Amino acid sequence: MQQRFVGDSGLRASALGLGTMTWGSGIDEDVAADLLRIFCDAGGNLVDTSAGYTNGAAEAILGQHLGHTVARQDLVLVSKAGLEYRNGHRVVDTSRSAMLSSLDASLVRLGTDYLDLWLVDAWDPHVPLQETLSAMDLALNTGRVRYVGFSNFTGWQSAKAAVQAPFTAVAHQIEYSLLQRQAEAEVIPAAYDAGLGLLAWAPLGRGVLSGKYRGQIPTDSRAANEEWADYVEPYLATRPSRIVEALWTASQGLDSSPAQLALAWLLAQENVSSAIVGPRSAQQLQQLLGAEEVRLPEQISQVLSEVSERAN
Q1: How far apart are CA 89 and CA 210, in angstroms?
Q2: Number of helices (H) and strands (E), helices first, in the chain?
Q3: Structure pTM?
Q4: Exposed (0-12), middle (13-18) or buried (19+): which is 283, by Cβ within 10 Å?
Q5: How many angstroms separate the Cα of 135 from the Cα of each of 35, 148, 166, 248?
Q6: Close Cβ partners of 195 (under 8 Å, ≥ 6 residues apart)
Q7: Most buried among 39, 126, 139, 141, using CB within 10 Å?
Q8: What is the Cα 8 distance to its own chain's centre?
């Protein structure tokens, strides 16, 4: 698998990253082991998790396989702090105490001494930015993390953080896909100017760009699951269907799946270091890994961009 530099740093990450958001909630330890093994055997190295994913269960499952299913040194291990869900409510806390306590707990669950990349998971309007940055700086200086960055910041937030930080940030994780291109207005230009590589989450439009929701909602899909329905629902309206149909049409002529084309389009966008996918089965992952072999014709890429721009 192709390796890309993350931003202006020397950190190399695979073009596709493996996301763990549903590990411990729909994906058990055995499936997780299969996904991790297949991903790494294909040359992937970036594995993305968070202290907030399933209340730490995702990190714990991943930690069980480090050193067994895959060698720790073969991974670019990414985790995040500052955002969690308590009793179904989103709680943001990027105070120095919360960030460092979260980091230490993540390292214990993962069974490792360090993270390759640590991200602050959200902007906290109630905590001084310098306090959050000081926690990240301490994590760097004590060797608990090798690189740092931001996640889900707006353009001005990422620019302000990058300028005021006493360290060099290298990455910005954002939602980015043919169905979600709002970041192109300010977030992506700000990241580029600050030398931050983009880690794109939900690169398949929360699963919708795979085409599996064309005319139906499969009973085994996230949209049919009460826990995840609100996550997918905004992408199931009439607007997204035009993009899905364009992908479906193009896939017929290119002997590729809609999901592979959507990923190929994204990976061709400027400053994208990695697209983080969240497959639920080994079969899904095998198909997604084929996206790297797709050579998207310029004319098709342009058509997809135009259809997407009109829909967005």
Answers
A1: 29
A2: 11, 12
A3: 0.93
A4: exposed
A5: 33, 11, 11, 46
A6: 7, 8, 9, 162, 168, 170
A7: 39
A8: 19
Q: How many residues does the chain have?
A: 312
Cα separation of 20 and 35, whole Å? 10
Please write the tens of the pLDDT for every residue from 65-86. 999 899 999 999 999 999 988 7
| Contacts for 167 with CB less than 8 Å, ≥ 6 apart | 133, 136, 137, 140, 148
Q: How far is CA 58 from CA 22, 54, 70, 130, 194, in A?
A: 7, 6, 16, 29, 31
Q: How far is Cα 82 from Cα 52, in angstroms, rounded to an integer?
A: 8
The contacts of residue 254 (CB under 8 Å, 6+ apart) are: 261, 294, 296, 297, 300
Q: Which two tokens stand for residue 197?
A: 């590589």
> Which residues on adjacent β-strands are paired with residue 175?
201
Q: Hey, what are 100's tokens?
A: 């460092």
Q: How far apart are CA 232 and CA 230, in angstroms?
A: 6
Q: Report the chain's mean pLDDT, rounded to a whole number.
A: 92
Instruction: Return d(Cα 300, Cα 304) in angstroms, integer.
Output: 6
Instruction: Tell whether the model's pLDDT for residue 193 goes beyond 70.
Output: yes
Which residue's entry shows tokens 């699951």?
A: 225
Largest CA distance in the chain: 54
Report the pLDDT value the prediction gives residue 236, as an integer from 0 to 100: 73
Tokens 């931003």, residue located: 7
Answer yes or no: is pLDDT of 214 > 80: no
103-115 average pLDDT score: 98
Evaluate whether 118 touches 151 at the Cβ level (below 8 Å). no
